[in-house]
């Protein structure tokens, strides 16, 4: 990989001083707050993170508070942000800092990368922004900006990504490493955008090979996308009096979160009624299909059909499940994939009022 042109640094920093986004995690250089923001921003839009960041830090204002909090409380504060593994990794990382680094977040890329959930990009961002280290933070924005600027034709994965990190570190200015990385992030998300780069507004247009060659729009070369696996489920909202059953996921995707019991496969009302009877020897009362949703994860898609039914034998079919009232639903971390079920369950439970007929009537 050819070296990057150091002449881009000054115009980039000048542009950032005028146009950089004023974001809450840029108010100071606290490594804990930067860490939280970087984890939240993974695969999530800035606008979404803005709704969660301050609230999360009110609940866990310090690294110690996060490390010592019950996991359930952390999941609840993360509810709606998705990719819950990030929240678990963040808390595990905080606990690791308390145990292995005497409560002080380490300053080097290598040590930062030894923490749970901290990869090369996050380590580079924390080291450069909080500790003014000349470390590159190569996210999708940086890959796009530099691929276009220098006309890199390779797909910047694996070894090439490492080479790009090195090339960036060679031009990162001593006195403003954090601003430099943040400037690249902002340029990539505001000007050098994936589909229609706004080259006429770009402070680097005079030095951009991609613009000069007319190839900018086709860069970067992206790795081939893996197709997602489609999975179908029947999701059962099993009510008994003023409760509905939920199960805590103990492994795999969404581990640690609470979900309504799910049966793999596609079912009609009659088929799920027979399924229930076969396993409990009871025909469920009031069985209704209350809707379909699709939830897209990184590598798979869930197609879900939600059913409501009434039975006191749900525990026989789902032995680990827990009956929850409407208030309890609000106190447990339930992923957004279950949003339709939560809405239906809340409606049912709030109107239950001691009578099944009352509740069914309003569903
Ligand atoms: S000139 Fe255009 S392609 Fe080049 S870095 Fe700027 S916005 Fe991106």
Q: Would you kindly provide a written description of the structure presented here, covering whatever features stand out?
A:
This protein is α+β, with helices and mostly antiparallel strands. It folds into 2 domains: 213 residues, Hypothetical protein, domain 2 (Endonuclease III, domain 1); 134 residues, Nucleoside Triphosphate Pyrophosphohydrolase, CATH 3.90.79.10. It has 18 helices and 7 strands. Strands 1, 2, 3, 4, 5, 6 and 7 form a 7-stranded mixed beta sheet that branches. The longest helix is centred in the first third of the chain and has 16 residues. The protein starts with 8 loop residues before the first helix and ends with a helix. 37% of the residues are buried. The mean pLDDT is 92. The site of iron/sulfur cluster has 14 residues, from helix 10 and helix 13.
Can you lay out the helices and strands and say which pair or pack?
Blueprint: H1 9-19, H2 31-41, H3 46-50, H4 53-59, H5 63-68, H6 71-78, H7 85-100, H8 109-113, H9 120-131, H10 140-150, H11 158-171, H12 177-190, H13 209-213, E1 229-240, E2 243-248, E3 258-259, E4 262-264, H14 269-280, E5 285-296, E6 300-310, H15 314-317, E7 322-324, H16 326-331, H17 339-352, H18 356-362
Parallel strand pairs: 1-6
Antiparallel strand pairs: 1-2, 1-4, 2-3, 2-7, 5-6
Helix pairs in contact: 1-12, 2-9, 9-12, 10-12, 17-18
Bound molecules: iron/sulfur cluster.
Iron/sulfur cluster (SF4) binds near residues 192, 208, 210 and 211.
């Amino acid at each position: 990989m050819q070296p990057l042109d150091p002449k881009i640094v000054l115009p980039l920093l000048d542009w950032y001083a005028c146009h950089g986004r004023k974001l809450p995690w840029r108010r100071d250089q606290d490594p804990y707050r930067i860490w939280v923001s970087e984890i939240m921003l993974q695969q999530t839009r800035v606008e979404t993170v803005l709704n969660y960041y301050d609230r999360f830090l009110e609940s866990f204002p310090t690294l110690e508070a996060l490390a010592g909090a019950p996991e359930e409380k952390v999941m609840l504060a993360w509810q709606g942000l998705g990719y819950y593994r990030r929240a678990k990794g963040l808390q595990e990382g905080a606990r690791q800092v308390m145990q292995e680094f005497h409560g002080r977040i380490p300053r080097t890329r290598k040590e930062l990368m030894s923490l749970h959930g901290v990869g090369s990009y996050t380590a580079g961002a924390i080291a450069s922004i909080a500790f003014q280290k000349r470390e590159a933070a190569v996210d999708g924005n940086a890959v796009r900006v530099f691929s276009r600027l220098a006309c890199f034709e390779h797909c910047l994965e694996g070894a090439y990504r490492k080479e790009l990190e090195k090339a960036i570190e060679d031009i990162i200015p001593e006195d403003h490493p954090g601003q430099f990385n943040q400037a690249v992030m902002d340029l990539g998300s505001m000007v050098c955008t994936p589909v229609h780069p706004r080259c006429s507004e770009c402070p680097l247009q005079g030095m951009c090979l991609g613009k000069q060659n007319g190839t900018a729009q086709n860069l970067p070369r992206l790795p081939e996308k893996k197709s997602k696996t489609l999975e179908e489920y029947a999701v059962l909202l099993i009510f008994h009096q003023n409760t509905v059953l939920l199960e805590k996921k103990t492994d795999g995707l969404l581990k640690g979160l609470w979900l309504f019991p799910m049966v793999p496969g596609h079912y009609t009302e009659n088929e799920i009624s027979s399924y229930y009877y076969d396993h409990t020897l009871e025909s469920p009362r009031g069985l209704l299909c209350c809707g379909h949703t699709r939830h897209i994860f990184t590598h798979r898609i869930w197609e879900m059909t939600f059913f409501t039914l009434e039975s006191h034998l749900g525990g026989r079919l789902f032995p680990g499940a827990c009956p929850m009232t409407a208030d309890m639903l609000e106190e447990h971390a339930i992923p957004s994939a279950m949003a339709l079920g939560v809405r239906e369950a809340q409606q049912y439970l709030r109107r239950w009022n001691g009578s099944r007929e009352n509740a069914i009537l309003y569903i």
